[in-house]
Amino acid sequence: MDRIEFDTRPAMIADDSAAGLPDLNRRHFLVTSLAAGFAVAAVTPALAQAIHTSDEGLVAGEVKIPVADGAIPAYRAHPATGGPFPTVLVIQEIFGVHEHIKDVCRRLAKLGYYAIAPEMYARQGDVSKLESIKDIMTQVVSKVPDAQVNGDLDAAVAFARASGKADVARLGVTGFCWGGRAVWLYAAHNPAVKAGVSWYGLLGAPPWNPKGTSAISVGKTVKVPVLGLYASKDGFIPNADVDAMKAQIRRSKSQIVVYQDVDHGFNADYRPTYNASAAYDGWRRMQEWFKSNGVV
Predict the structure, then answer these.
(1) 90-104 in b/e burial notation, b at 16+ Cβ within 10 A?
(2) HEC profile for the chain?
(3) Which of 98, 126, 152, 177 is catalytic?
(4) Angle (deg, nearest 10), helices 178-189 and 146-163
(5) pTM of whole model > 0.85?
(6) pLDDT of amino acid 44
């Protein structure tokens, strides 16, 4: 099995660095630098179809986001000239901020956005070398509280604002799988978000915490317009959950699109479940959703 190696270079701090901050206490942080390549449990090796977006014309790379108890690594990308740019928080898959999530940030930056993806498991552990989703859930994800996730996303917004390159008054959020659930919860947490897009985000009680908050339970109260992109043959998200969420949001500005005969992870171009047609349509819909709701 291919090994994942870490990028041990210093963080790219450019114009939006954490330079000048006091020495940060990292005792509580098990991940202080982003992994290189793809997470082992995601797929090994990554399929040849995996998309790689060039960073030409961009400022792109790893940064450190100050939080109350230290700093978390993140990947950010934005156009090299101009700005400030509309801002998009990118919330990782269950596999952490690996190459696919970094590439999503670069794709958004090519469209004129400031995109930033914080490593949401920094305190709980490195999932890049774990060999199964079960291990990821039991050893790391089950220990990640929703309040921590929302707080770290707030910190990412503050970091982006301080960079001078991000206009957080035009704030969007998108996420995938684990991160897709977090989109719904963050939209409920932060009414300043203009729009969210959840890609196959879990809707029922999270399997790593059956007593945890479900996206369905917050659906009715979410004021932020969220676009949910789901798959009819998703083995992780029952169609009944999708129907329940549709019922919860029916009086809101949020919407759900279901792609027929498509599986979970249809935007993950490095995995066998990738569906180019659904991925392209979802990407188009995301851009239109952001533009129509002020993230432009």
Answers:
(1) bbbbbbbbbbbbbbb
(2) CCCCCECCCCCCCHHHCCCCCCCCCCCCCCCCCCECCCCCCCCCCCCCCCCCCCCCCEEEEEEEEEECCEEEEEEEEEECCCCCEEEEEEECECCECCHHHHHHHHHHHHCCCEEEEECCCCCCCCCCCCCCHHHHHHHCHHHCCHHHHHHHHHHHHHHHHHHCCEEEEEEEEEEECHHHHHHHHHHHHCCCCCEEEEECCCCCCCCCCCCCCCHHHHHCCCCCCEEEEEECCCCCCCHHHHHHHHHHHCCCCCEEEEECCCCCCCCCCCCCCCCHHHHHHHHHHHHHHHHHCCCC
(3) 177
(4) 70
(5) yes
(6) 65
Out of 78, 98, 100, 264, pick the active-site residue: 264
| Tokens matching residue 226 | 């969220």
Q: Report the distance separating Cα 98 and Cα 157, nearest Å.
A: 20
Known active-site residue 234: yes
Task: Tell me how far apart the alpha carbons of residues 31 and 67 are, in angstroms, rounded to a whole number.
Answer: 14
Question: How confident is the chain (296 residues) per 10-residue block, as mean pLDDT?
Answer: 28 36 52 85 76 97 95 98 98 96 98 98 93 93 96 98 98 98 98 98 94 94 97 97 97 97 96 96 98 98
Q: Determine whether 177 is an active site residue.
A: yes
100 is a catalytic site residue: no
The DSSP bridge partners found for residue 173 are 89, 196
Nearest to 117 by CA among 160, 168, 169: 160
